[in-house]
Design goal:
The structure holds two protein chains of two kinds. Chain A has a single domain, classed as ABC transporter involved in vitamin B12 uptake, BtuC. Chain A has a two-stranded antiparallel ribbon. Chain A is globular and about 55 Å long. In chain A, strand 1 and strand 2 form a beta hairpin. The longest helix of chain A has 31 residues. Chain A is an all-alpha fold. Chain A is 75% helix and 2% strand. Chain B has two domains: 226 residues, no CATH class; 34 residues. In chain B, helix 11 packs parallel to helix 13. Classes of the chains: A mainly alpha, B mainly alpha. Chain A: Belongs to the binding-protein-dependent transport system permease family. LivHM subfamily. Chain A: Pfam families: BPD_transp_2 (PF02653). Chain A: It is found in: Cell membrane.
Chain lengths: 287, 335
């Protein structure tokens, strides 16, 4: 029982990180209609931008977080306006290829600047709290708490602000949204700000939970995609549920199969979903 | 002089193998519009299959069946084809972008399996001692003989794929790529045709993997940096002109030349930066891809250009025939 609870804790932590990535991916997919393959590398970028502040100024990770989020959001908007904007008129699949290129450019730039080896925010051992035989590290509480805060903020943004509503409308039906006079380009910019920012938060939390590495984001991209598809493309709320489901499934699977095959679990769930219900749990965009 | 010649032979062989990979991708993406980002996975499956079938008996990994090399190659083609069949059956009913996501999964799982299934693949230690063709017969002249064999195989493959492209089968594939609904309405079994194209492309990639294994003679998970290999093949196809087999080969040569060129540039970097040179090379190729996509998305030899040339040629031929026919008619009228 204790082991099950312990895995549940790990699963929720991992699921929070995956959810943050998946929300942005799902929004971008729903509004711009292409799977953004560089999303994993935005996650990495966010983690490393915060790392700069942590190492140069000795700032705590939580102080560095907003800077990493802002920097990554800015980078996402810049990539979109310089590159994706020019390709938007052609087939979405060209955007897909382009995003694969961006993924490699970002990753190699990160490797070029910060080197190819592992980095950590803080050295030393954190003493975990123990509840009924379950270990919970302070970092775990920060990750889950931070995710909840961000999700609530996102919820308020999507429900209460005009931009948020326009965004949901674009994601539901882009043509209909344009007819009602929604300005497409500004909505797209907002989508990248939110997508990039949440990706950065995911990266920073991932870096706190494990280590920083130039391919950390790419490695988590598959579970993030799986979460977005599970929740339904263009459904930010679905992406949260999808992320938690994938995170828990990956951790529970370690009792049965080798932990190195965790990504395969996400993949299997995704394929299963694509076969049974390709629109996702919350009936996202139709295939 | 001998050194340069050896380097040229070695490079050309690698270009040839990349050329075969690019032709395989052209069947999937260029002709049918199937988005496969798992190129390296099928390449690796081919390499390992052929390795397992042809190496001498060993305890380090599965197999060591010591079968003849051609059997290994056929085995590589068959196993990649079977893998592709199962992947295709599940994913090809979906949209192109879902297939792309699914193939990332395949690539990731193959990568993990190569590393972890030590009993089958030899794990991180890799698989040494894969026999080379003509090695015993020719001794030192092995590389040149391999290159000649490779070029012959590449030629045969090119002609075969060109025939397939211009056949009725190839037309259906292009129809699916351009407008799936119309093709469906014309009574074609779209999913089945896609499956055929996907499996054929993956067989070609597996074949390239087998050739690579027998050329280098040693394979390990490190040899298949999945993103890098896949990405290079994609850039080759897009730069050359997707949908066009000639373009695919031209792209393979051009991008390989640039890729090697970046090695020379990064070789001039100060010593403390050389460890990061690999990243810089990838960065340059990535930028090149984006420039091509923005400025010339159809590639060096575009498919449309090829078709225009063909139409013009046919028009000329028709005109000649017409002129001849007209003069014949006039002369008969005069009688």
């Amino acid at each position: 029982m204790a082991e099950f609870l312990q895995l549940t804790v790990y699963g929720i932590v991992l699921g929070s990180i995956i959810s943050l990535g998946a929300i942005g991916l799902s929004l971008v997919y729903g509004i711009l209609r292409f799977p953004h393959f560089a999303h994993g590398d935005l996650i990495t970028l966010g983690a490393y931008l915060a790392f700069v502040l942590v190492t140069t100024m000795g700032a705590p990770v939580l102080v560095a977080l907003p800077v990493g989020v802002a920097g990554t959001a800015l980078a996402a908007v810049a990539i979109d306006q310089v590159l994706y904007r020019r390709l938007r008129r052609v087939a979405p699949v060209i955007l897909l290829i382009s995003s694969v290129g961006v993924a490699l450019i970002l990753r190699s730039a990160i490797q070029l600047i910060w080197g190819p080896s592992n980095q950590v925010y803080a050295t030393g051992i954190q003493f975990p709290y123990r509840f009924a035989g379950v270990n919970i590290k302070p970092d775990h509480l920060i990750i889950v708490g931070g995710t909840i805060l961000l999700v609530v903020a996102l919820h308020l943004f999507l429900q209460k602000t005009k931009v948020g509503k326009a965004m949901r409308a674009m994601s539901d039906n882009a043509d209909l949204a344009q007819v009602t006079g929604i300005r497409v380009n500004s909505i797209i910019i907002w989508t990248w700000i939110i997508g990039g920012g949440l990706a950065a938060a995911a990266g920073i939390f991932l870096g706190m939970d494990t280590r920083l590495h130039p391919v950390m984001g790419w490695r988590i991209l598959l579970p993030v995609f799986a979460a977005a598809i599970l929740g339904g493309i263009g459904r930010p709320y679905g992406a949260i549920i999808g992320g938690l489901a994938i995170g828990l499934a990956q951790e529970y699977s370690t009792t049965v199969i080798s932990p190195s095959y965790k990504p395969a679990v996400a993949f299997a769930l995704m394929v299963l979903m694509l076969i049974v219900r390709p629109t996702g749990l919350f009936a996202g965009r139709k295939v | 002089m001998g050194g340069i010649l050896e380097y040229a032979v070695f490079s050309l062989s690698l270009v040839g193998i990349y050329g075969i990979l690019t032709l395989g991708l052209n069947v999937q993406w260029g002709m049918t519009g199937l988005f496969n980002i798992g190129v390296a996975a099928f390449f690796a499956i081919g390499a390992y299959t052929s390795g397992i079938l042809t190496t001498p008996p060993t305890d380090a990994h599965l197999g060591g069946f010591a079968l003849p090399i051609p059997v290994g190659m056929v085995g590589a083609i068959v196993v990649s084809g079977i893998m592709a069949f199962f992947v295709g059956i599940i994913t090809l009913k979906l949209r192109a972008d879902y297939l792309a996501i699914a193939t990332i999964g395949i690539a990731e799982i193959v990568r993990l399996a190569l590393k972890n299934e030590t009993e089958i693949t030899g794990g991180v230690r890799g698989m040494p001692g894969i026999p080379r063709p003509f090695d015993e017969m020719l001794g030192g002249q092995y590389e040149l003989a391999f290159l000649i064999m490779l070029l012959i195989l590449l030629g045969v493959l090119f002609i075969g794929l060109e025939k397939a492209r211009t056949s009725a089968w190839g037309r259906v594939l292009r129809g699916i790529r351009e407008n799936e609904d119309t093709t469906l309405a014309a009574g074609k079994d779209v999913v089945n045709f896609r499956l055929q194209a996907f499996v054929l492309g993956c067989c070609v990639m597996g074949f390239a993997g087998a050739l690579y294994a027998h050329f280098i003679s040693f394979i390990s998970p490190d040899a298949f940096k999945p993103m890098l290999a896949t990405f290079l093949v994609w850039v080759m196809l897009i730069a050359g002109g997707s949908g066009n087999n000639k373009g695919a080969l031209l792209g393979a040569v051009a991008i390989w030349a640039i890729w090697s060129g970046t090695e020379i540039i990064t070789g001039m970097l100060p010593a403390d930066l050389t460890t990061r040179a690999g990243a810089l090379r990838v960065l340059l190729i990535g930028v090149l891809l984006e420039v091509i996509l923005v400025t010339r998305p159809e590639g060096l030899l575009s498919e449309a250009g090829e078709r225009m040339r063909m139409i013009r040629r046919e028009a000329r031929r028709d005109k000649l025939a017409e002129d001849r026919g007209a003069s014949g008619a006039r002369s008969s009228a005069g009688e």
